[in-house]
Amino acid sequence: MPADGDSATDAGRFAEYEGDLRKAERKVAGEIDPGMRALVVAVAVLVAMLSLVLRHTGSASGIDVLTFSPDAAAERVTITSKVFVYFVAVFGIGASVLALLTRRWIIAWIALCGNAIACVAGMLAWWSRNTPGVGGVQPPSGVGIGLIIGWLAVFVLTFHWARVVWARSTYHLALEEERRKEAATRDALARSLQRKPGQDS
């Protein structure tokens, strides 16, 4: 009987702290630890920022494309180039910096998706600078160095964010498996405690 009382007391104490433990566990599960990848991501973000200052095509820089300046209009910048530059600014720079600062898994996942789309948009932007448009009008200038290094930067960001997100996703799966085992153990313990009175009688 004292042993059963001790078990009940221990269970009560654990129940008091279980809510706090689960909150702390959820907080840790929602965080990322990029480790040395943080340095690579930071450098790639700086390169992406530099790409906006350099020439995207002809005399138009990435910022010109971003702001729809007269230089961008004169170079006949297409929608694919505009989409690419916006994705570089929003996801390659903005979301990546935010993910590094907050260490939140969901923001890293958003940065991954945005940079992956930017990879495709960059390829289309490159293609559009070497392909005649409507009516066979050829763009006056080809691909600039800003577009090239910006495209390479989002490739690097996509790769490293994918590794970070995948590692955290694997951790989530392991955590869920551990939770299932813990629930099964608690159920087995509850059933064994329920059988004790019958066995004593």
From TrEMBL:
Specify where the region named Disordered lies, as residue ranges: 182-201
Transmembrane regions listed in the UniProt entry: 36-54, 83-101, 106-127, 142-162
Keywords, comma-separated and alphabetical: Membrane, Transmembrane, Transmembrane helix
Q: What is this protein called?
A: Transmembrane protein
